[in-house]
Amino acid sequence: MSSGQATMRSKEELREKWMKPDVITGSEILLRSLLLEGVDCVFGYPGGAVLFIYDAMHGFTDFNHLLTRHEQGAIHAADGYARATGKPGVCIATSGPGATNLVTGIATAYMDSVPLVVITGNVAQQFIGTDAFQEADITGITMPITKHSYLVRDAADLPRIIHEAFHIANTGRKGPVLIDIPKDVSAQKTTFVPALEPVVIRGYDAPAEPNGEAITAMIQAIQEAERPVILAGGGVVYSGAHNELLEFVTKTNIPVTTTLLGLGGFPSGNELWMGMPGMHGTYTANMAIQNSDLLINIGARFDDRVTMKLEAFAQQAKVIHIDIDPAEIGKNVPTDIGIHGDIKVVLTAVNQAAKPATKAEAWRSLIQANKRDYPLSYEDSEVELKPQWVIEMIHETTNGEAIVSTDVGQHQMWAAQYYKFNQPRSWITSGGLGTMGFGFPSAIGAQMAHPERLVVSINGDGGMQMCAQELAICAINNIPVKVVIINNQVLGMVRQWQEIIYDNRYSHIDLAGSPDFVKLAEAYGVKGFRATNKEEASRAWQEALNTPGPAVVEFVVRKGENVFPMVKAGDSISQMIMGDA
């Protein structure tokens, strides 16, 4: 028997074991149901209301749980797992403060359309509404930031609820689903009946086939356009439509710009890629959008950091918007042709009829000239370590093949600008909510999902301190994330805004009292390195790459460095501050 056959047989045997109609507790039903949904890692933190659940884990060797050091670390790790795989991430927390510590992570996933199944404990049903110890109405608290939520009243309902939760989280516009389990439900015994049938929920349907007339109108618009542009967003990545997008671009020869969450959805090495648009977008991408006569939005939501001054955005363009969420079409930018559907399905249909944009030859030449004449640039230094140079070095040494997570701030924008991605699901960052503390734990989730790949977590010295405690689980479990800290001893993006917009009135941004990050890493049992110039940086980074387990590298960079280009709030995306270089 081959090893593949043996593995398949063992999986089948495990499924048979998990599906047995035993009389078991709600906690055991939960664990079995998660395994039947294909969950291979759960991130969590125990507490009183989930003790029956954690007791069920004791000795249950088929169930893999990673104990984080904070509930926020758990949910960000689950988020990173989901973004790296496309499968729902799962986390568990107790009632009250445990559940409320998940709120920021739930909002982060909701804003970025990331599938999560969030499991919380609650006080026993008899105490709900009495202000019992560690009681919180977590379903009510999170109602605006979840796709759906459940308060479980009977252990017999758990298999169906869990089956539905995974379906809801990972279909349509993806997002977080919360399951709140009172303590008496987790202890209740009943016969386990696994939920195996396809999920059918009244009023919740998959998108219909894309409108054929709209697709025909789109093909016609491309033929008539002289200055077409594709704006590709996170929907391309989430639907797995990167190959279909590449085929569409190859057939039409239309230049492409990818949003922050769309990075990796189109290969950065393609000559038609223009970089990222918006507040810190490239000159080429922003000017192409502003001068286009046809703007094809594929899976982006016209976020304000892309459009900036809305009434001045792409005023000359006919707008086509393809999105899985019909509420996004026409919400922010008036749309001439709206196509509701899954991006992969829509592009598959479009590609059957797609033809070259024959009137756009001069336009493509202009864009190539802009890429040549207005590249991303910065003033390098042989004295000070520049953050842009650090990102370029990381890109070169990893050949653009790493999974890169970031926190939020200047380093995030430099990483988006100077790290070039070859494949989707390699870029993990908090876009819509902009959550500091997200970067490092999300990298842990990505590494758990892909133990065979190099995962690099790029952080600022501010955000790193918000979830630095998760260094413990990297050390204990030998999770080989390479943690980069771009240390400018300041809240860099806030400082940049205070310099440019608030006339150098710097207020409460000094992080000079931060810890020695090398000593902090070593305190957790992780190797730490520091670099203050190019030679030290190259050597320290190579040592980190050669370290078989986790490693932390602190790059001490210039405090006053700014991210350019930059568009100030209230300006159009053609009003770019290009910077000294």
TrEMBL record:
It holds the Pfam family TPP_enzyme_C. GO terms for cellular component: acetolactate synthase complex. Its EC number is 2.2.1.6. Residues 215-349 form the Thiamine pyrophosphate enzyme central domain. It catalyses: 2 pyruvate + H(+) = (2S)-2-acetolactate + CO2. Binds 1 Mg(2+) ion per subunit. InterPro entries: Acetolactate_synth_lsu, AHAS_TPP, DHS-like_NAD/FAD-binding_dom, THDP-binding, Thiamin_PyroP_enz_cen_dom, Thiamin_PyroP_enz_TPP-bd_dom, TPP-bd_CS, TPP_enz. Residues 25-139 form the Thiamine pyrophosphate enzyme N-terminal TPP-binding domain. Residues 407-555 form the Thiamine pyrophosphate enzyme TPP-binding domain. One of its GO terms (biological process) is isoleucine biosynthetic process. Its cofactor is Mg(2+); thiamine diphosphate. One of its GO terms (molecular function) is acetolactate synthase activity. Pathway: Amino-acid biosynthesis; L-isoleucine biosynthesis; L-isoleucine from 2-oxobutanoate: step 1/4; Amino-acid biosynthesis; L-valine biosynthesis; L-valine from pyruvate: step 1/4. The keyword Transferase applies. Keywords: Amino-acid biosynthesis, Branched-chain amino acid biosynthesis, FAD, Flavoprotein, Magnesium, Metal-binding, Thiamine pyrophosphate, Transferase. Gene3D superfamilies: 3.40.50.970, TPP-binding domain. Belongs to the TPP enzyme family. This is Acetolactate synthase. The lineage of its organism: Bacteria, Bacillati, Bacillota, Bacilli, Bacillales.
